[in-house]
Structure formats: C-alpha cells, structure tokens
Amino acid sequence: MIRNRPVDAEGQPFPTLYWLTCPEAVAAVSRLESDGWIKRLSHRAEVDPDFRIALRRAHEEYANERERLHPGAKAWGGVGGAARGVKCLHAHYAYHLAGGADPVGAWVAERLEEHGPIHYEKPGRRVAAIDLGTNSIRLLVARFPESEAELQELARDMVITRIGQDVDRTGRIAPDALRRTLVVLQRYCRRARALGAERIHLAATSAVRDASNRDELARAVRRLTGEPMEILAGEAEARLSFLGATRGLERPAPQLVLDIGGGSTEFAIGDGVPTAAVSAQIGSVRLTERYVHTDPPAYDELERLDLAITSVLHQVEDRIPVHDASTLVAVAGTATTVQAIAMGLPEYDPDVLHRSVLSRADAERVFRLLADMTTEERRQIPVMVPGREDVIPAGAAILVSVMQRWGFTEAMVSETDILDGIAYSIASG
Questions:
Q1: Residue 116: which pLDDT band, with cuts at 50, 70 and 90?
Q2: Is the overall model pTM greater than 0.85, yes or no?
Q3: Angle at the Cα of 24 from the Cα atoms of 23 and 27, rounded to 5 degrees
C-alpha cells in the first residue's frame, strides 16, 4: 500500500489517498468485488446503523487526513473520493492497512485472513517502533528477515502533534496536546497490527520526561500498544539516535550525530558504537517558547536565542570530545527540512534527502531566509511539514551554531535516526 499526494502532477484532485499495490491482495480483493460484495456492503450500510455510522466516520477521517496534506482537499470526499457508501473495496482495504478505522476495510481483511494472511508471506520478525517527541510522533513498522541483520521498512510516518506544548513553562502535558497525540497513536497501532507487527513499543523523550502528569498518557499507551511506555533518559536517546543514523554508514570516524528535537538536542560520538553521549535542554519548541515572541523573530530575540545555544554548546564540549569528530551526521526534521529547502525540492522526498550533504553555507543561507519570514510564509514552503513552520528558525539556529562553533563545513543529513534505533533495540530484545 502506498500513500498518494492529494493532487496529481497537474494539480488536479486525486481521489484515492491510499492505494493498494500488492498484486496478490489486489487480485483477492477483486474477487470479492466480483462476488458482489460492494452492493451487499452498501446495503448493510443502509440497514445497520452501527456499520453506517462507522463508515461515515471513516469517510470523514479520510477527508481530514487529505486536508492535513493539502489545505482545501477535505471537500474532495472520503475513501476513494466518495462522500458516503462503499465505492471500492481496494481503497477501503488500503485505508485499513494505513491505520484507518474503516469497517469495510476491516471486513475485507477478515475475509482475506480466512484464505491465509497475504501480507505476511515473507518470513521474519515484524515490530513497530513509535517515537513520541516533543513536536512529533513517528511510526516505523519494520521486518527483520531471519537471514539478515538490517531492517526492511514496511511503513514510516510522522505527524506533528506537539505534546510538548507549554511543557517547558507549566511542567504539564496540555489536555489538547494529549488528545491530538492519542488520536494519531490509535491510528499508528491499527496500522502496525494490520501489517502484522508482533510488538508495538513506544519510547517517549524530552517533553514526557519533563511532564509531571504523564500517568494518563502512560495508561493510554499501555492500553493501545499492549506494552508499558518507555521514557528514555537523554543519554539513552542520544545513543539510539547514533545507532539508527550510522548503521551501514561509510564515512570517516569518529562520527558525531546531532539530533535536534523539539525539547532537547542530543549529541553522540563514536565509531560504529557511541563512546560518549549527552542530551542538552535546547530544542526547537523549547527555545521558540522561551525566546521568540514576534513574527518574524526580532533581531534581539535572535541574539538571545544565539546566546542560549552557545552557552549550552560550551557545556557539551566539556562532556564529549566533539572536536575529535571527522563527520557530522544531522538527523530529525530540522536538518532534513533545511536540506530540502537548500536543494529547492518541489516536495519532501526522503529518498533524495537521505545521506545527502548539506554545506554550512547552505545551512546559514536557509537559516537567514527562515528567520526573515513570517510563520505564514514558512507554511507556504512546499517541503514544510504542517506544524513545523513556527519553530524551525530555532531548530535551524542550533544546526548552524553547531557547524560554526565546531568547524564543520558540511553535515551528512540522515533520514534514519532514533526511530530506527528503537526498532533495532526491540527486535533484538
């Protein structure tokens, strides 16, 4: 199953957000359609109120997701472009695999299971890793073949829910932030199970570490994933980022991994394995909430921001040998977005970005550009993920400060990071 853009190459509405691609599954679902199940399920939606309500909600959530990816696209309809009823079993089943609470897709899955689980045909252990950061919640469903040590990605997703909203100021998770996060977590868990994950493990980082009222979140995580929530210490977070970012990387060592998060920034150095790691209390959300109060940021706000970052980087130097590093590897959304802007990409493309090289000159140029823009102007950048536009100047400031202070003329940008490290960790556990 793949996720399409809400518009085609000509900018016209594309009705099917999730598209079923497995040939065996397509053939099996086609047989159900040939047997008349579209008509029968449509009739069920007319006479069964519970089924009807669940189907209507599925169409609404599908339209909402399309809207999140492309403002204005909600009006184009729900599953497969339909506003109601059953249009295409393939589209409903694809939405089920994507984690949608779709009663038709779930029914199709049950019918296919009766004849053997099509999407489990390749051997190997399947796990789902969820990284709950200050700004975003991310999912990786991976298969670990029995004869190979490297993971094979089955699904990867990221949604900005900002559970760290105001945590730096209040020390508590805001009710709206918790609600936003749990809605996405429910969908992630449905997707992981639809893809055959044996385990679903969530690791939380800076904002949850700092929040005094995380019990409600912990209870919801256990209920939805079946496992207790893991709250990573800062150093453990840094080491997992190193593991995910450098696996298979052929670049001069020691390598310094820089993971700019919403609430904290992690640093880890090593050769194959991290030999030193530290977590610092600077992140794009935390610094924005503390120092940026005008739009665009005022010059004095940027100066205070720079002083705060420099002070922390001085402390990092005292704890790990950053000047010994031969290669800087930058991970997470700030670095990848800065690189996407620097490359002038018309849309975010992780395959193009992964292990590309960002020059310091380009990082400085993009930072100046972002700092001079309003939040609305940043929102219009094609590669800007909704929810990052207000905090990326602070994140880019961290990236530029690291490169300038420690003498890096370039950074390798990695799409693999702590999320991959969590997956490797639970697969070996």
A1: low
A2: yes
A3: 85
